[in-house]
């Protein structure tokens, strides 16, 4: 949202220094066989929600949510809002989209951070919000950061502009690197969030599945996540970031490419891409 920020930013840092990419594979997914009944695959994660009474910066958080949802629909280019909606007063809403990777809405306060640490055993929170987002919703990031430190939870910030595909494209390599690094320790669990958990954070998770998981194409990664969590991140931002990492060409040249280019990766391309991500 276009709101002037009065938030003093906390340091924006990655979770760990760069290291060689791991060979950890994504969870296997059931595939349909031509001529056979499609297998029934239970979802990797049920929708999870944590509700707690809290005070928003506005006396009417629902009115802020309505304003936000309208802007989100218009600027994301969606034909409708439902089910792509966010309501601040409903609390955390998230799904486990990869083993150890939870994608969802913003922690609003220290209680939400405590819940993620205790109920979901989260070890890292990866925040993609800008300061203006925090100011709009009245989120005290400093209190959350202090509580995370007390809980032993790493708080990483890699801000991207809300509803902006170019901004997401630019930060994807750093955000995916932060996610991949955060997943390295044994028993690591990472909560990836933006504001609503419908654009920026699922975009990062899809890019991670495409670049570091075992899925063969961007469409496969996109379908894998959106079949678990209803959302509509900007697919072309992910393909554009893939082009940026692999081609060595000017970003503006991406617009002239076939929509099939950089939507799948050879093993050699994936190796080069992972190397470049970990140097981002």
From TrEMBL:
<keyword id="KW-0119">Carbohydrate metabolism</keyword>
<keyword id="KW-0378">Hydrolase</keyword>
<dbReference type="GO" id="GO:2001070">
    <property type="term" value="F:starch binding"/>
</dbReference>
<protein>
    <submittedName>
        <fullName>Phosphoglucan phosphatase chloroplastic-like</fullName>
    </submittedName>
</protein>
<dbReference type="GO" id="GO:0004721">
    <property type="term" value="F:phosphoprotein phosphatase activity"/>
</dbReference>
<feature type="compositionally biased region" description="Low complexity">
    <location>
        <begin position="21"/>
        <end position="39"/>
    </location>
</feature>
<dbReference type="GO" id="GO:0009507">
    <property type="term" value="C:chloroplast"/>
</dbReference>
<dbReference type="InterPro" id="IPR016130">
    <property type="entry name" value="Tyr_Pase_AS"/>
</dbReference>
<dbReference type="InterPro" id="IPR020422">
    <property type="entry name" value="TYR_PHOSPHATASE_DUAL_dom"/>
</dbReference>
<feature type="domain" description="Tyrosine-protein phosphatase">
    <location>
        <begin position="93"/>
        <end position="251"/>
    </location>
</feature>
<dbReference type="InterPro" id="IPR000340">
    <property type="entry name" value="Dual-sp_phosphatase_cat-dom"/>
</dbReference>
<dbReference type="InterPro" id="IPR045204">
    <property type="entry name" value="DSP_laforin-like"/>
</dbReference>
<feature type="region of interest" description="Disordered">
    <location>
        <begin position="1"/>
        <end position="70"/>
    </location>
</feature>
<dbReference type="GO" id="GO:0005983">
    <property type="term" value="P:starch catabolic process"/>
</dbReference>
<dbReference type="InterPro" id="IPR000387">
    <property type="entry name" value="Tyr_Pase_dom"/>
</dbReference>
<dbReference type="Pfam" id="PF00782">
    <property type="entry name" value="DSPc"/>
</dbReference>
<feature type="domain" description="Tyrosine specific protein phosphatases">
    <location>
        <begin position="170"/>
        <end position="230"/>
    </location>
</feature>
<dbReference type="GO" id="GO:0019203">
    <property type="term" value="F:carbohydrate phosphatase activity"/>
</dbReference>
<dbReference type="InterPro" id="IPR029021">
    <property type="entry name" value="Prot-tyrosine_phosphatase-like"/>
</dbReference>
<keyword id="KW-0904">Protein phosphatase</keyword>
<dbReference type="InterPro" id="IPR052832">
    <property type="entry name" value="Starch-Glucan_Phosphatase"/>
</dbReference>
